[in-house]
Amino acid sequence: MVQPLTEMAKDLTLALIENNLIAPEDMQQRLQQIHASLCELKAYEDRNLGSGEGREEHSGTQPAPKDWRKSIKKHSVECLICGATFKQLSTRHLRQHDLDPRTYRQQFGIPSFQPLSAKETTAMRRRVVQNIRPWEKAPTYVKAQQPTSAARPKRAGKKATSTNQS
Known about the structure:
Arc Repressor Mutant, subunit A
């Protein structure tokens, strides 16, 4: 018996969740992606089995561009190229796609100030930095906080008396 595509997509998504490969909050989006992929594969099979050809025919439609805002979630960030999820998109991963963070941001229209990490990861780093306050340990900050002799007002010294009192 042939299993319907929606059942196959559901089973695949549940398997990903059980193996902790995706977060439960990403289930709906991943389910839709898997279902769309399965539909494409079925259409490809039907086309090729009917015509007897072994190569894929393109319909001329390109996939819609992905919105980078949806790829950055609370506990994960999704690579817009391969779809893999991470806590942070590292330079090492982007090198696999022959990109660096700057080029990746330009390619998908991501602002340069937007971190390529999950929202919770970014918030945790922000809390750590606020607690350790590294700018207060910087030599230039320490030097600026020290009082200088030029900044102090000069003390008025004792006046010498030149008149003798008799």
